[in-house]
């Protein structure tokens, strides 16, 4: 019998047919046309790209150093409230330029969001696939631990982790990663289990594809759509959680210009210098809204099952 | 049905044991000896140190310490605060009504506004109202609530002078013994003129702040669940029968649409208690959230350990109740 490979199959030199990566459900172009249908998502993407640009080129874009204290211009109002263009967004209580701190803060917040996302997605894939494929004791242990993590209120768990490890930027990332790990593990496991019963997986098994290859090459690509959506939305959650820790004094430590930490001591300036309170929070809100808009668009484009009507 | 109940209850036990284990291990991972942390820099005589360690059982094998800890928790002993020297459980019990009152009011705020907003948005799908509602919901969902609280204080309290900035009650003008622990109820019971309105004005901003994220979640969930139900055959039948739109939406559709919403509301407990930590810190609300943060600052690890244990137990319990209610009201799950 002469074999013609079906879509998604490869014929090995010895004649065995194996299932390789199935064709992507839609090309990049199709994806973009679905994504750009949602105007909010495109707006979100534009804002995210802009903030990412600021974060990446912070030293070039920011007018001042984020930690330099201009003693002569303490608590100077922003330019629209009678300030000067030297400090467009005004200065804080010790005379640091708020605009520069916000721009450098974008590095911190996006950095935290991305690190948490990458680490938790990677761990989520490994643990999720392991529990779906190995079942038995591995699955029980992993899933019970995830149940436990989910049971503890996220901020309370993050507080516990930071209390043990000590407050710092890196420990913030560790704490938030722990908090958000279960959603990826559960998602990958559920998606992989749904795939496992499908015929192409059975075929690949019969063809003798090794377990590791089966996990990461055959099954994983088919679980990616919901994972990408969750990962995008996970960035914004991580940013919020990290900012909350910073606000409580348990995250990034001064003088790091983390947005949440910038708000921590702002309360006493509510009367005297409201811009110190307003601007960092606005930066958090805009970033998180933009990422969520983008994530909603991704979901609509990638995962029609989850599409919000 | 009964078997499902037993099974579901039994499944929470390992989680509970694991929680004990985690809190136990976490506190032991904290650098520094708890006794030395207590005595400070003055130091302590070796024999006195040994005595204190013995008193606290710290010289016993770790597994025995864990069993003691677990045994204590089962018998309601959550340790003793290092700072105040009172049992953690009784400290928690004094502060918890404040958190519960705040949480319930925040949740009520979210439900009372969220469900109608979601229903109207679904019925008027694609309208200006729908778009506005969903934009507000997205913003609420993305809101850093600690900043939201500061903004509200800035405008409502400092600028407009409408509400007090912190606390639960105007303690200069009013004093009464706590009866229920709920300021709203106690102020009414005290029969002092103005006490109730003082309680309300203290509560309103924190409740709004805490209710904001659940409000957004509930509104979004109600809308999508309602949209799904409105497309069902029985809704069309109800319309075809000539029922008024109000009856169709309010009676036939809403009842079924609310099932997933009720679950989502139940699952907000964790969000609410986590949010309470932030809200209480901003508004100096004397509840368990603020107490937890202060325990960290004071290095009061038994309080932190017991507090997390208690808060999480409450969340586990509420989630269990939500699950069981869900099964009780939705036979499709039970037999599925």
UniProtKB/TrEMBL annotation, chain A:
Q: What's the domain of life for this entry?
A: Bacteria
Q: Tell me where in or outside the cell this protein is found.
A: Cell membrane
Question: Which InterPro entries does this entry report, sorted A to Z?
Answer: BP-dependent_transpt_permease, MetI-like, MetI-like_sf, OppC_N
Q: Name one Pfam family in it.
A: BPD_transp_1
Could you list the residue ranges that cross the membrane?
A: 41-62, 108-134, 154-181, 272-294
**Domain (ABC transmembrane type-1) ranges:** 106-295
Membrane topology, as annotated, equals: Multi-pass membrane protein
Protein name, entry field: ABC transporter permease subunit
Family, per entry: Belongs to the binding-protein-dependent transport system permease family.
Question: Which regions form coiled coils?
Answer: none
Query: What keywords is this UniProt entry annotated with?
Result: Cell membrane, Membrane, Peptide transport, Protein transport, Transmembrane, Transmembrane helix, Transport
TrEMBL record, chain B:
Q: Which UniProt keywords apply?
A: Cell membrane, Membrane, Transmembrane, Transmembrane helix, Transport
Tell me the InterPro entries matching this sequence.
BPD_transp_1_N, MetI-like, MetI-like_sf
Give start and end of each ABC transmembrane type-1 domain: 96-322
Transmembrane recorded as keyword: yes
Q: Where does this protein chiefly localize?
A: membrane
Q: Where in the cell is it found?
A: Cell membrane
* Similarity remark: Belongs to the binding-protein-dependent transport system permease family.
Protein name, entry field? ABC transporter permease subunit
Question: How does the entry describe its membrane topology?
Answer: Multi-pass membrane protein
What is the native source organism of this protein? Ancylobacter oerskovii
Top-rank taxon of the source lineage equals Bacteria
Q: What is the lineage of its organism?
A: Bacteria, Pseudomonadati, Pseudomonadota, Alphaproteobacteria, Hyphomicrobiales
Per the UniProt record, one Pfam family is BPD_transp_1
Which residue spans traverse the membrane? Answer: 9-30, 100-123, 135-156, 199-219, 257-283, 303-329
């Amino acid at each position: 019998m002469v074999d013609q490979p079906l879509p998604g199959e490869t014929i090995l030199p010895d004649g065995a047919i194996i299932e390789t990566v199935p064709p992507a459900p839609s090309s990049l172009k199709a994806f973009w046309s679905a994504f750009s249908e949602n105007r909010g998502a495109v707006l979100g993407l534009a804002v995210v790209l802009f903030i990412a640009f600021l974060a990446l080129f912070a030293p070039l874009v920011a007018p001042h150093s984020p930690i330099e204290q201009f003693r002569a211009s303490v608590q100077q109002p922003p330019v629209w409230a009678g300030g000067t263009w030297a400090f467009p967004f005004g200065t804080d209580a010790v005379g640091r330029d708020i605009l520069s701190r916000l721009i450098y803060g974008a590095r911190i917040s996006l950095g935290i969001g991305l690190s948490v996302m990458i680490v938790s997605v990677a761990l989520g894939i490994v643990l999720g696939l392991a529990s779906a494929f190995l079942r038995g004791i591995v699955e029980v242990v992993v899933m019970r631990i995830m149940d436990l993590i989910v049971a503890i209120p996220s901020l309370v768990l993050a507080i516990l982790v930071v209390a043990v490890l000590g407050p710092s930027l890196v420990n913030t990332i560790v704490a938030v990663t722990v908090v958000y790990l279960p959603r990826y593990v559960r998602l990958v496991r559920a998606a992989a289990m749904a795939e496992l019963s499908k015929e192409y997986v059975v075929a690949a098994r019969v063809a003798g594809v090794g377990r590791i290859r089966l996990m990461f090459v055959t099954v994983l690509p088919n679980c990616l759509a919901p994972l990408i959506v969750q990962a995008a939305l996970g960035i914004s959650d991580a940013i919020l959680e990290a900012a909350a820790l910073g606000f409580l004094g348990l995250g990034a430590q001064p003088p790091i210009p983390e947005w949440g930490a910038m708000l921590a001591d702002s309360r006493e300036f509510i009367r005297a210098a409201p811009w110190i309170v307003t601007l960092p929070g606005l930066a958090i809100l805009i970033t998180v809204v933009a990422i969520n808009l983008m994530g909603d668009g991704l979901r609509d484009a990638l995962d029609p099952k989850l599409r919000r009507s | 049905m009964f078997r499902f109940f037993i099974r579901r209850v039994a499944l929470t036990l390992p989680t509970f044991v694991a929680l004990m284990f985690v809190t136990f291990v976490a506190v032991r991972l904290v650098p520094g000896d708890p006794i030395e942390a207590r005595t400070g820099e003055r130091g302590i005589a070796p024999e006195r140190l040994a005595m204190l360690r013995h008193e606290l059982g710290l010289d016993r094998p770790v597994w025995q310490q864990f069993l003691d800890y677990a045994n204590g928790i089962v018998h309601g002993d959550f340790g003793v605060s290092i700072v105040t020297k009172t049992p953690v459980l009784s400290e928690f019990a004094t502060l918890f009504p404040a958190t519960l009152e705040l949480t319930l009011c925040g949740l009520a705020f979210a439900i009372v506004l969220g469900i109608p907003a979601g229903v109207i948005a679904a019925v008027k799908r694609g309208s200006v109202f729908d778009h506005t509602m969903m934009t507000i919901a997205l913003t609420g969902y993305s809101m850093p609530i600690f900043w939201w609280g500061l903004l509200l204080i800035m405008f409502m309290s400092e600028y407009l002078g409408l509400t007090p900035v912190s606390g639960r009650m105007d303690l200069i003008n009013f004093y009464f013994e706590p009866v229920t622990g709920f300021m709203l109820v106690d102020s009414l019971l005290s029969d002092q003129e103005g006490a109730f309105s003082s309680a309300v004005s203290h509560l309103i901003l924190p409740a709004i702040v805490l209710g904001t994220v659940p409000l957004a979640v509930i509104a979004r969930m109600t809308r999508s669940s309602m949209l799904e139900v409105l497309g069902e055959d029985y809704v069309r039948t109800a319309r075809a029968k000539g029922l008024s739109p109000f009856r169709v939406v309010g009676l036939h559709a809403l009842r079924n649409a609310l099932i997933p919403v009720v679950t989502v509301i139940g699952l907000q407990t964790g969000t609410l208690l986590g949010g309470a930590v932030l809200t209480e810190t901003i508004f100096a609300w004397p509840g368990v959230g603020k107490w937890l943060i202060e325990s960290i600052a004071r290095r009061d690890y038994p309080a932190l350990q017991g507090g997390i244990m208690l808060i999480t137990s409450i969340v586990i319990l509420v989630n269990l109740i939500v699950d069981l209610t869900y099964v009780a009201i939705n036979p499709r799950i039970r037999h599925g």
